[in-house]
Amino acid sequence: MPTLILTRQDVSRLITMPETLKAVERAFTDYATGQASMPPKAYLTLEKGDFRAMPAAVPGAAGVKWINVHMGNTDKGLPSIMGIIIYSDPDTGYPLAIMDGTEITAYRTGAAAAIASKHLARKEALSLGLIGAGNQADTQLIAHLEYFRFEEIRVYDRSTEAATKFRERFAGNPVRITSLAEACGADIVCTLTPSRAPFLKRQWLKPGTHINAIGADAPGKQELEPDVLEAATVVVDDIYQSTHAGELNVLISTGLFSEKQIYGTLGELTSGRKPGRTTDDAITVFDSTGLAIQDIACARFIYEKALAQGAGHQFDFIRE
Question: How far is it, in rounded angstroms, from Cα 292 to Cα 64?
Fold first, then answer.
C-alpha cells in the first residue's frame, strides 16, 4: 500500500474553496451528531513559538495535524504558521498520505468563518471588515465571496504596506483601507490578529453586526473587549477549546464570562439543531479556535483528488 507525499504546491493546486466549504460544513454537522470524534488539541509552548497536535476522525478518515505558530519566522523568510497532516486509513492505521497542512489551515479557517456568517450574519450584509491583512485575510474574503456580494470590503492592518498589498491582491473587488474603528463598523467583521490585548470596542459596532473572532486560538489571546461578548449571542466551534484557548478563555478564567452564556456550537447550527440569527439587530460572535475535524475532512477530499489526478509522489512507507 503506497503512502502519498503532497507538498504545499500539490495541495495548492488541488484545494478549492467550494469543496472546502462543503467538507467543513459537513464536518461540523458530523461532529454535532456524533459521527466525528476529536480530542482537544494539545499545546507545546516554547520560547519562540508553540506547536499544536490535532487528531481527529470523520466518517471514512482519520489523521493528525502538527502545526506551529512562530511569529518571528517572517524575518527568516519562513511562514509564521506551518503544518503537516498525516492522513491514515481508519481500518488499518496505515499512513495513506503525508501532506502539507499550511494551505489547508488557511482555507478551512476561512471556510468556518464564512459558514458561521452564512448562519449568523444578516442576509443583506453588504460590507466586510478585515482586521489584519495577512494570508488569513485572503481566505476569509475568498470564502465569504461564495455567500455574499459585498459593496465594500474594509481592511485595517497596523502595517499600511500589508493593507496595500492585500488591496492589490484583490484589485477587482471594492477593497478600501480604513481605520480600525471604521473596519469594525462593517456588517461582518473578521478579527485576524495574534493580539493578547483586546482592541475591538462595543461602541464601534452597529446593530446586527456579526463578528468572526479568529485570532485568539491559544491561552492568553484576546481580541474583543468584554462588553462585546456580554452583549452578543456567542457561538463557538468547540466548547472545550473555546473556553480554554479561544476568545473566551481569558474572560472565563477571570470570571467575566460563563460557559452557560454560550448559545451553541456551529455544528448545532449547520445540523439544524438550533437556529442561527433570529433578529436583525442582535450582535453575534463566532469564536473560532480551529478544529482538527476540519483539517481531516479537507485532507480526505484532497487525497482522493490527488489519487484521481496522479498528483504527488508515492512510496512504500513500511518497506522502503
Answer: 7
